[in-house]
């Protein structure tokens, strides 16, 4: 595979942009090699600047649930763009997307749009603190909620991928109210509440931990968290930035029948444009300015292009059968991968929920990953790196890190499935040869 154009661009990018990228995991840091510079995407495929084609399982890290450049979304963006790109004043389309999200995600009664998942989570925590009048928060090791100072504690995603310590530049004062607990461990959360019964505003959790690989919540864990928070008059913030419109049409909360106080969204609701949102119960959201006193604002928040893209995306996704058929493809993919790995005697832990999936290569056949500690202990990142490159060379673009999830879209079909499974069989034979 020729990658000379990507190499030249990467060389230049490193002179201009720290590490050559505008978000760390893109740099292939943990798998090595040259990140592919992308020229275009269409459907399930990406083309790099050298003309190589890849079946894309990253999909811009989740947003592109209909695939690249779907007609409905591109039309919506173009029709909106000719009327202007931003007004800094309210528009009807913000109501339309708000209505659609409220109708789709069970717990949500009101919503505030922001520009990224980071902003959504940061604002959701400010709201939980404003609502409860308390300062401490609980987060879970290996969960990632964006790069706000107070959340860069035992964070997943790029922090996990690069094996970084908690980031320098974060003042200790901003994290002294961040308590951490292992994922899937209710007793640890109870301990924290017993230690600080009147000081914890809330807990923020990824319903499926998809920034340290792909770790499913154990039976009763998420409901147990909600119950514990409520027992101590704290709020549960469900971070559905990644799982929203993916684990179920109504997110993980619909799939697992949960009623969180606040929900964070991002990715899919912007259809590939920069969007986030925090949302929840009316009496809680009423604290947000200008309805209430908790301040949060944004020059480009509710941007018409982003609203149009989100609206077109969710409208298409809600058509009968669309979500289910993506989930079915994801299930076939993970079943196929499982069979291939088993036939080759390669121990893996595979997870799938709706249109998301993950596959850990395990260092020990009997290992089970259920939290960040076991992910770091048992995930064979070296083997993942080899597998990743063997797949890439055959035109399959997986996340360039063992600690990230995979995504499918409505454009992934039987053809991409077969191509991927054939590539995986040959890749794993090369890796284990
Ligand atoms: N929360 C979760 C669960 C995420 O996966 C991410 C990003 N992958 C974020 C928050 C942050 O979103 P953004 O990158 O849009 O700031």
UniProtKB/TrEMBL annotation:
GO terms for molecular function: glutamate-1-semialdehyde 2,1-aminomutase activity; pyridoxal phosphate binding; transaminase activity. One of its GO terms (cellular component) is cytoplasm. InterPro entries: 4pyrrol_synth_GluAld_NH2Trfase, Aminotrans_3, Aminotrans_3_PPA_site, PyrdxlP-dep_Trfase, PyrdxlP-dep_Trfase_major, PyrdxlP-dep_Trfase_small. Pfam families: Aminotran_3. SUPFAM superfamilies: PLP-dependent transferases. Its EC number is 5.4.3.8. It catalyses: (S)-4-amino-5-oxopentanoate = 5-aminolevulinate. Its cofactor is pyridoxal 5'-phosphate. Transmembrane segments: none annotated. It is an enzyme of class 5 (isomerase). It is found in: Cytoplasm. Keywords: Cytoplasm, Isomerase, Porphyrin biosynthesis, Pyridoxal phosphate. Pathway: Porphyrin-containing compound metabolism; protoporphyrin-IX biosynthesis; 5-aminolevulinate from L-glutamyl-tRNA(Glu): step 2/2. GO terms for biological process: protoporphyrinogen IX biosynthetic process. The modification N6-(pyridoxal phosphate)lysine is found at residue 267. Belongs to the class-III pyridoxal-phosphate-dependent aminotransferase family. HemL subfamily. NCBIfam families: hemL, PRK00062.1. Homodimer. This is Glutamate-1-semialdehyde 2,1-aminomutase. The gene is hemL.
